[in-house]
Write a structure and sequence with these properties.
9-stranded mixed beta sheet, Rossmann fold, 21 helices, elongated, 17 strands, 699 residues
C-alpha cells in the first residue's frame, strides 16, 4: 500500500475516494461520520425547484485572478535578479518572509527521548523511539542505524505522507531501509494524526474523527482561531526530529538531509524553508505552484496552505530557495495530480537562482513515469542525489528490502501515544484560547471597530457600487407576487446577489426608497430560504410595509462554487474549504470578504434611499451580518438567528461543526463576537436560538 491517489481527472474525486482506493475504507467511513450531516450534505430545499446558481464560477475566477497577480509580481522580482549579490539578497528576504508565516517558534524543551525496543536486521538495526517535540507531546519514530560501518555517517530525516499507519507504510519503510543499507542513519517519524499519533481516540484508542487528512483538517482548522498554523506544528516536529538525530553519535552533522513524499513532500519543502541545518533535500510529489493547484481545483490539507504565504509573494520554489545553494532535487511524477508543469517552473526558478549563486549543479529535477507515490524510480533518484552530495559510493540502485509488520515498528505499548497520556493538539489550542480570552480588555467602540477592520482586512469602499439587473426567473414560490434580482459588484468580478420582494415587477432600476428596509443575509441560499425559512416570514409579518431584500454573499447561493469536484461544497475537503484556505494564504479572510459584500449592499441600499436598515442574518450569514451591522451607520436594528455565540466556544470545544470559512485567523488575539454583540445591543440586537461550537439544533 503506497501513498497514492486515484486519477484527479475524475470530477467526483475527493479524499474520501482516496481513503477507499488506498484500502482505508474503514477510515473513509470514520471520516464521514466524524462530522455531522450538515457538513456532508446540502441542506435540502422542501420544493423540487432546482437551485438558482447563475454565478458558479465567480469565486474560482476571482481567486485565480488574485493568485495570478501575485505570481506575476513574484516573477518580475525574480527576473530582476542579475548578480550573485542580487540572489543572496533574494534568499535572505525569502527566509525572513517564511519566518513571518511559520513563526514565532516555541521554546526548545527537553526531548526526553527513549528507545522502547530494538529490532536487529542483517545490515542495520531499527530502534523504536519516543521523544517530546513539546512538553508531554509525544512523537513516535523509527531510527534505522547501519551495522558494520565506520561512524559517523550521514543522517536523513524521513517525513511521511498521508497514510493511516504512518511510518510503517511500505513506501516509507522502503526508503528508510534503502538509505540504511547504503550507509545512512535514518529517522522516520509519525506525523500528527497518523500511525501511533492519533489525536482523537475513544476509550479503546480507536479513531473518533478519522485519520490522516480528517484529523489534519479538524485540528488544523480550529488552530487558526488562536493564531496557530498546523503546518508550523508539523514542521516543528521535523525540527525536533533533526534535533534528536543530531544527538546520536552515529550521525555526521556535516551531512543531514530531509526527504518525504506527498504530505511528506510538503513537510520536506516547508522544512527546507525554516531550518538551516539541512545539507541536502529531496521533496517528492508535492512541489508545483500555488497557481497550478488553484487553477486545477486541487484542495490541499490545512498544513499545505500557509497563511499569508501568497500575499507575501512566496511560492513552493521559494521554500527550497531558502536552502540555496545547497543540493536539492525536486521529484515529480508524470501521472501525478500535482501539476508537473508547476514542478518544472519551480525547478527553472531555482536553476536561475543557483546559477547566479555559482552552483547550478546543486539543483536537479526528476520526473518518475508512474502515478503519485514514492515509487522505486523516485526513491532511486533520491539515493543517487544524496550519495552524490555525501560522497557515498553506493550508486543509486535500491537494495533488496524486507517490509516489516506494523507491530514490529510500534513504539508505544498499545499502539497510540494517547495510551501513554500524550497531550493532543486540541489541548494546546484550548489552553491558548483560554489564555487569549483573559487578555481581552473592554474597549470603546472606535477601538473595537479598528480591531475588526484590520483583522478582517477590509478594503476601502468608495461610494455606491455598480450593479447589474438580472433577468427574472419565474415561479420561484417566494412570499410575494414578484421579485427582482440584482448583482451588486462589491469588487471587480465579485457580486453579492440581492433579491427584492415586491407585489409588482420593477425591472428597469430599483425603486427609490425613503428610510427603512430589511436586509436578510442568507445561511446557504436566499432562493431556498425565501421559500422555507421561518425567520423571513416573521420579518415580513412584523414589518409588512417595509421593503424586503435578501442577500447571498460570495460563495453561497447564487455564487455557490461548482468546483473541486461534483457536489463537494459542504464536504470537509470541498470547495467552501478550498476558497477559505486560499483566503488565508492571500491574507484576506473569507469572513472579511463576505462582510465587505454586506457593507457594499448596505452602501447600495443607502444610495437608493434606504438608510434605516433592519439587518438580519441566519447561520453562516449571521457572522458577516453582525460584523457589518456593527460597522455600518445605516444599520439601526439587528436580528440574528442560529448565530455563533463566540469563537472561543469553538476553540475550547473538542467537538465543533462550524466550517473554516466562518473562521478568522488569529481572531481570539484581536476580538470575539460577544464584544460585537454588546455594542449591537444599542441597535436593538435580537438573538434567536444562538449556537455554540455545534451548529446543529439541540435534541
Amino acid at each position: 500500500m503506497t501513498d497514492s491517489f486515484p486519477d484527479r481527472g475524475s470530477t467526483s474525486f475527493n479524499r474520501r475516494d482516496w481513503l477507499t482506493a488506498s484500502g482505508l475504507a474503514a477510515s473513509a467511513s470514520v471520516l464521514s461520520a466524524s462530522l455531522p450531516d450538515q457538513l456532508w450534505s446540502a441542506e435540502g430545499d422542501t420544493t423540487d425547484l432546482p437551485p438558482l446558481n447563475r454565478f458558479p464560477r465567480m469565486v474560482q475566477e476571482f481567486f485565480v485572478d488574485q493568485v495570478r497577480t501575485m505570481e506575476a509580481q513574484g516573477d518580475a522580482a525574480r527576473a530582476a535578479l542579475k548578480t550573485k549579490e542580487d540572489a543572496e539578497r533574494y534568499v535572505k528576504g525569502i527566509r525572513a518572509k517564511i519566518q513571518q508565516v511559520f513563526g514565532p517558534w516555541p521554546e526548545k524543551t527537553p526531548l526526553n527521548a527513549k528507545t522502547t525496543s530494538t529490532v536487529e536486521r542483517d545490515t542495520y538495526r531499527i530502534e523504536n523511539v519516543i521523544f517530546e517535540s513539546r512538553p508531554n507531546f509525544f512523537v513516535t519514530a523509527n531510527l534505522y542505524v547501519p551495522k558494520n560501518r565506520k561512524f559517523p555517517l550521514p543522517g536523513v530525516v524521513g517525513s511521511c505522507g498521508h497514510s493511516a499507519n504512518g511510518k510503517a507504510i511500505d513506501a516509507y519503510q522502503s526508503f528508510a531501509q534503502g538509505l540504511a543499507r547504503q550507509g545512512y542513519v535514518v529517522l522516520l517519524f509519525d506525523p500528527i494524526g497518523q500511525g501511533e499519533r492519533l489525536q482523537y481516540v475513544d476509550e479503546n484508542l480507536k479513531p473518533r474523527r478519522g485519520v490522516s487528512v480528517s484529523e489534519h483538517l479538524y485540528a488544523g482548522n480550529q488552530q487558526f482561531l488562536v493564531g496557530d498554523f498546523f503546518g508550523a506544528w508539523r514542521a516543528w516536529d521535523g525540527i525536533r526530529a533533526l534535533d534528536y538525530l543530531l544527538t546520536r553519535e552515529e550521525v555526521d552533522p556535516k551531512h543531514v538531509g530531509i526527504t518525504g513524499n506527498s504530505g511528506g513532500g510538503t513537510m520536506t519543502t516547508w522544512l527546507c524553508g525554516v531550518e538551516d541545518r539541512w545539507t541536502m533535500a529531496a521533496p517528492s510529489c508535492f512541489v508545483t505552484t500555488f497557481r497550478r493547484n488553484l487553477e486545477n481545483e486541487l484542495p490541499a490539507d490545512t498544513e499545505q496552505c500557509p497563511p499569508r504565504a501568497i500575499a507575501l509573494g512566496l511560492d513552493h520554489a521559494d521554500f527550497l530557495a531558502a536552502m540555496a545553494p545547497k543540493p536539492v532535487i525536486i521529484l515529480a511524477k508524470e501521472r501525478d495530480y500535482f501539476d508537473v508543469r508547476g514542478a518544472k517552473v519551480a525547478y527553472e526558478r531555482l536553476k536561475n537562482l543557483y546559477t547566479l549563486l555559482g552552483k547550478p549543479e546543486n539543483i536537479s529535477f526528476f520526473v518518475g513515469p508512474t502515478e503519485h507515490g514514492y515509487s522505486i524510480e523516485n526513491r532511486e533518484a533520491m539515493y543517487g542525489w544524496f550519495n552524490r552530495a555525501t560522497g557515498i559510493a553506493e550508486g543509486q540502485t535500491e537494495p533488496k528490502l524486507t517490509i516489516e509488520k506494523d507491530d514490529t515498528l510500534r513504539c508505544t505499548p498499545h499502539g497510540q501515544v494517547a495510551g501513554i497520556r500524550s497531550r493532543s493538539v486540541f489541548n494546546f489550542t484550548q489552553d491558548k484560547a483560554i489564555e487569549l480570552g483573559k487578555q481581552h480588555k473592554k474597549r470603546d467602540v472606535s477601538a473595537l471597530a479598528e480591531a475588526i477592520t484590520s483583522t478582517l482586512k477590509l478594503p476601502t469602499r468608495t461610494g455606491a457600487p455598480d450593479y447589474r439587473i438580472l433577468r427574472p426567473v419565474a415561479k420561484r414560490e417566494y412570499p410575494t407576487a414578484a421579485s427582482t434580482s440584482y448583482a451588486i459588484e462589491s469588487e471587480p468580478g465579485v457580486f453579492a446577489l440581492v433579491t427584492k420582494l415586491s407585489e409588482q415587477s420593477h425591472y428597469s432600476r430599483p425603486p427609490k426608497g425613503k428610510g427603512p428596509a430589511i436586509l436578510y443575509v442568507a445561511h446557504h441560499s436566499s432562493d431556498a430560504e425565501l421559500r422555507n425559512e421561518p425567520l423571513i416570514q416573521e420579518l415580513i409579518k412584523a414589518e409588512p410595509n417595509v421593503p424586503f431584500f435578501a442577500c447571498d454573499v460570495r460563495g453561497i447561493g447564487e455564487s455557490r462554487p461548482n468546483t473541486a469536484g461534483a457536489d463537494q461544497f459542504l464536504r470537509p475537503y470541498g470547495s467552501d474549504y478550498f476558497y477559505a484556505s486560499h483566503s488565508f494564504m492571500l491574507d484576506r479572510p473569507y469572513v472579511g470578504q463576505k462582510t465587505h459584500d454586506v457593507l457594499s449592499v448596505l452602501d447600495w441600499l443607502a444610495d437608493n434611499g434606504y438608510t434605516d436598515i433592519h439587518l438580519a442574518g441566519l447561520g453562516w450569514g449571521s457572522i458577516p451580518a453582525a460584523l457589518a451591522g456593527f460597522l455600518s451607520k445605516h444599520v439601526k436594528r439587528v436580528t440574528l438567528k442560529n448565530n455563533l455565540t463566540s469563537y472561543e466556544a469553538i476553540a475550547i470545544s473538542e467537538g465543533y461543526d462550524w466550517p473554516v470559512s466562518s473562521f478568522i485567523p488569529g481572531v481570539l488575539g484581536k476580538f470575539d463576537l460577544p464584544e460585537v454583540y454588546r455594542v449591537l445591543e444599542l441597535k436593538q440586537l435580537k438573538q434567536i436560538e444562538p449556537r455554540g461550537a455545534v451548529q446543529t439544533a439541540p435534541a
